[in-house]
Amino acid sequence: MSDFIKPTLLEKLENIPTSPGVYQYHDSTGKVIYVGKAKNLKNRVKSYFQQNRPRDAKTLSLVSHIEDVEFIKTDSEMEALILENNLVKEFKPKYNINLKDDKTFPYIVVTKEEFPKVYTTRKMIKNGNLYFGPYTNVGNMKQALKMIKDLFMVRSCHLPLTEDNISQGKWKVCLDYHIKKCLGPCAGHQSKADYNDMIAQVVQLINGKTTTLKQIIREAMEVKAENLEFETAALLRDRLNALDVYESRQKIVNDDFGDRDFFGFAFGPEEASCVVLQVREGKMIGSQHFYLEKFSVDLKTDEIESFLFKYYQNNPFIPSELILEQTEEADFKGLEAFLRKQAGRKISIVHPKIGEKLKLLEMAEKNASHLLSDLLLQKQKRFEDFVPASIKALQRDLRLPTLPKRIECFDNSNIQGTDPVSSMVCFVDGKPKKSEYRKFKVQTVVGPDDFATMAEIMERRYNGSLSLELPLPDLIVIDGGKGQLSHAVEVLKKTKAAGVSVIGLAKKLEEVFLPGDKDPYNLPKTSSGLKLLQQTRDEAHRFAITFHRDLRDKRTLQTELTQIPSIGPGKAKKLLTELGSVDGVRTATREQLEPLVGVKSAAELLTWFSTQLVSE
Fold first, then answer.
1. CB–CB of 350/358 below 8 Å?
2. Which range of residues forms the domain containing residue 60?
3. Does residue 354 lie within any of the structural domains?
4. Over 70: is that where the pLDDT of 38 sits?
5. Do 376 and 395 have their domain in common?
6. CB within 8 Å of 365: residues ≥ 6 apart
7. What mean pLDDT do residues 107-126 have?
8. Do 403 and 376 fall into the same domain?
9. Which DSSP state fits 282?
10. What is the predicted pLDDT for the residue at 186?
11. Is the same domain home to 402 and 531?
12. Domain of residue 41, CATH code
């Protein structure tokens, strides 16, 4: 394992405690790129760096960027789970899962007021309001709102109702009161206690607790009838009848009248989907679906636990049982402890093996699988729809097996073998992706040998650390002719890019060389594919020349200007910045030099360069 871990991490990994806690991975800039929690910090963190352990693409990329690890010990798994969630919200790490579109799903809101309102929103704000959802199926939400509107007389106005304001007679009843859609709390026709009893029943309905709600309404109706309040009793009777109709439309899935959520998951290469079937009092009241981006199958249990935590963190109702598939090393004790504390009663996470629960779980999983397939199909369609014409033309003209959506182009630069460098530029969907440009100082080649230089760079890019950091391209372009191409191909056969298409592009006649072909291949001069190749080649050449010039100027700075006694690195850098080059310093006047380095150093510079001129 020590050969795989960066040296700076070895000591920290040996000193990580075995207690529960949270770990944070940092990249080379110190930014937090992943936050995780563990029952045993040492075992979990070390597992990332085991060479013989299979990893998915996300984990490989994560490990290649880890430069430092930080950990926080906690007293329990529940504390670690809560802390992990808070840190993810704070740092928004690159490699933690995203719950796609979770901010755009609608919620039903019951406001925290003396006379609460009920409405829908797509933005959750922590202000004491009750939020129900999110509703991924807007039809289910609209059905719930219609039932609320049909059964209850919740005010639709936005007046700031308080008992003091009402007692002062500030408002008059509106049209809703006259058409029996509101009982007029604004004018004192409905008491605060009665209104809030009605809101409590609304909450019961949204939660799917229709059996309990019917019992409450039936008892209230009997009380009103005994008190000879026949009009109110008749209203409650109609409400009961409507609830019976509503309940008859719901599918009864078990006869023990339990409250359960069934979580079906389906997993893709770097994403997952989840379908939640909601059962309340034995009846299926609805479903929700979610799409989880940047999902790591290597960390399946942790990712699922984090999702469940987020799902229930702000949910006003938690059922007694959560039903989901058994995963390897599944241990949701920390989550169960959190949910028990949140609900104030026992919550169980169950993994059924037989019976009705298993059938419902399989139904949720089949729906999740269908959802994921549909989402991946849409994603692929969007991916193909946005392919530029130049990419399609290049595939057609070169008869490539796949669309060259990612192109990497290489070029060498040196002057008589001095300061030899190479560059790699990357084009994605026909556009330069500068964050994935790379430059190389040639290490093993002495003298101006383009063939050996190209072979070295191919080896370093496709077998070195960059092979873990960057994805493989669809097309490799070598700036050069047949010789450079053949040397590159020989090396590529021994690398991870052995199956990638590779071509050479000669500068003079814009000829394309293909591996194994004796004669060059001429693309049509009007081809957008050729123009794309020229653009990548020119960009690689520019990038290489710029890097070579920077190295040469740095060497010149260190070997010429800094030889002058009173000129140190700081003054030399200032001179080059202002005057552009050593030649610019050589030809500068006293009036130009003195403001930059002072009278004494300016005189020394003039003397130094005049002496050199005489000696030459």
1. no
2. 7-95
3. yes
4. yes
5. no
6. 264, 265, 266, 275, 325
7. 86
8. no
9. T
10. 92
11. yes
12. 3.40.1440.10
Of 196, 163, 194, 158, nearest to 176 by C-alpha is 158
Contact 69, 39 (CB under 8 A): no
**pLDDT at res. 135:** 73
Q: Tally the domains of the chain.
A: 4
CB atoms within 10 A of CB 517: 11
The pLDDT tens digits of the residues spanning 408-430 come to 999 888 665 566 788 899 999 88
Q: Are 365 and 426 within one domain?
A: no
Tokens 């009893």 correspond to 197
Average pLDDT rounded to a whole number, residues 322-351: 84
Residue 166, token pair as written in the block: 């009402």
- Inter-residue contact 62 to 299 (CB < 8 Å): no
The answer to whether 438 touches 424, Cβ cutoff 8 Å, is yes
Residue recorded with tokens 């399946």: 300
CATH number for the domain harbouring residue 316: 3.30.420.10
In the block, which residue shows the tokens 């030459």?
616
What is the pTM (predicted TM-score) of this model? 0.46
Partners of 423 in beta bridges: 411, 439
Q: Exposed, middle or buried, 60 (CB in 10 Å: 0-12/13-18/19+)? A: middle
- Give domain status of residue 412, yes or no: yes
Q: What are phi and psi of 322, to 5 degrees?
A: -110, 120
Flag whether 154 is in a domain: no
CB-CB contact of 579 with 553 (8 Å): no
CATH code assigned at 447: 3.30.420.340
Strand partners, 476: 408, 502
| CATH number of the CATH domain containing 575 | 1.10.150.20
